[in-house]
């Protein structure tokens, strides 16, 4: 599951390979058409996108997770979220949702096609960040980072959107309290990097000599520390080294994930991540017995009205908007 090769380019698989403390990352890029009255594609079935597991609306109906965190960054399009602890949200257009699954949560992630008279492109990253053994069964925590609040580090050669991990004078928003990223000593960073055509951008050296940094290039062709890393390739380095990224004839976009490894055994089966086979078996038993709190929503593919706007509703009933 984890990458171990260092300081060399590697071809990206699906999902993108993870480097401890990250399990993996998934990149969705879909050219969804205009939506019908139900915010689905109706009879339109062009190439270049998928319904995933949705029936009328693309997305992922209710499914369980345990033992890790999901960080979902949506640069275009929207996601409608509902979960078993009562949280709900519509987010997108640069927003990020950070969900600690801990001891267990069931959630639905649907992609409503809000625009009726124009296409609904979706670009989404979902990153799985592992939890250490002592946090595997903490209470689930739902947090939102609105795009308007996410700091951006500006450099002469480009920019970096900062979901986690301070960069220059830009300080990230707080991660969930039980996250591996909550302790600065773990040097966790989630950065969305953009380097202008024929320009260079340098990421500073890691703060910890155990830190592992991985770049995932998904657009453009780059030179990374003298190695050619084209779209669909990644680059991993270990230790306290700066990282110079130089773009070719077009803008380079890359996701950067870094952190000090957790170093614990990983046993994963589908949506559950544990430290032993016995813990993994217990996760399935617990889900069968409790459904991680049940499902308080009318459907397993819940979406909100077209005009709902971006919002987050927390389990205590409080609501937040950008």
UniProtKB/TrEMBL annotation:
Residues 193-293 form the Pirin C-terminal domain. Coiled coil: none annotated. It comes from the Bacteria. Residues 55-129 form the Pirin N-terminal domain. Belongs to the pirin family. This is Pirin family protein. It comes from Corynebacterium nasicanis.
């Amino acid at each position: 599951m984890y990458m171990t090769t260092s300081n060399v380019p590697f071809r990206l698989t699906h999902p993108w390979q993870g480097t401890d403390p990250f399990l993996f990352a998934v990149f969705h890029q879909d050219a969804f058409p205009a939506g019908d009255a139900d915010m689905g594609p109706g009879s339109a079935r062009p190439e270049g996108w998928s319904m995933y597991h949705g029936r009328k609306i693309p997305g992922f109906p209710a499914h369980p997770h345990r033992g890790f965190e999901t960080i979902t960054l949506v640069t275009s399009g929207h996601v409608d979220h509902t979960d078993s602890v009562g949280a709900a949200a519509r987010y997108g257009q640069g927003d990020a949702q950070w969900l600690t699954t801990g001891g267990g949560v069931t959630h639905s992630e649907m992609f409503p096609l809000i625009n009726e008279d124009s296409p609904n492109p979706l670009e989404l990253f979902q990153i799985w960040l592992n939890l250490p053994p002592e946090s595997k069964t903490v209470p689930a925590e739902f947090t939102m980072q609105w795009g308007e609040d996410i700091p951006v580090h500006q450099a002469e050669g480009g920019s970096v959107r900062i979901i986690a991990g301070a960069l220059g004078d830009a300080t990230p928003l707080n991660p969930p309290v039980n996250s591996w990223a909550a302790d600065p000593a773990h040097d966790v960073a989630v950065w969305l990097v953009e380097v202008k055509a024929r320009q260079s951008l340098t990421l500073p050296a890691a703060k910890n000599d155990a830190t592992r940094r991985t770049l995932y290039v998904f657009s453009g062709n780059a030179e990374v520390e003298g190695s050619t890393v084209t779209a669909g390739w990644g680059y991993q380095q270990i230790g306290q080294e700066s990282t110079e990224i130089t773009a070719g004839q077009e803008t380079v976009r890359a996701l950067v994930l870094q952190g000090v490894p957790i170093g614990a055994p990983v046993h994963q089966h589908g949506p559950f991540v544990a430290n032993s086979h016995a813990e993994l078996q217990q996760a399935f038993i617990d889900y069968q017995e409790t459904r991680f709190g049940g499902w308080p929503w009318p459907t397993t593919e819940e979406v909100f009205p077209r005009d709902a706007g971006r919002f987050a509703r927390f389990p205590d009933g409080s609501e937040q908007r950008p």
